[in-house]
Amino acid sequence: MNPNPLSDRQKALENQYIREKEIQMAKERAAKNQAAKNASTSSRGQQDASKAK
After folding, report:
1. Does residue 48 sit in helix, strand or coil?
2. What is the DSSP letter of 2?
């Protein structure tokens, strides 16, 4: 039984696309989490400053 090289290539391209998409989504998720973390810490800083007055 000979494997179909076109099918193998297509599967490899699909896997590559999936990996790249997962990496992109992970970067977006990390950036969103970092932005949320920065927003929460900066708002805490503002609250602490208002308490100090």
Report:
1. helix
2. -
| Residue 48: both structure tokens together | 């602490």
Per the document, the length of the chain is 53
Residue type, 38: N
Q: Average pLDDT in the 23-51 region?
A: 82
Tell me phi and psi for residue 27, to 5 degrees. -65, -45
Residue 20: Cβ-neighbour burial (10 angstroms; 0-12, 13-18, 19+): exposed
pTM above 0.85, yes or no: no
Query: What integer pLDDT is reported at residue 41 of this predicted model?
Result: 80
Helices (H), the chain: 5-52
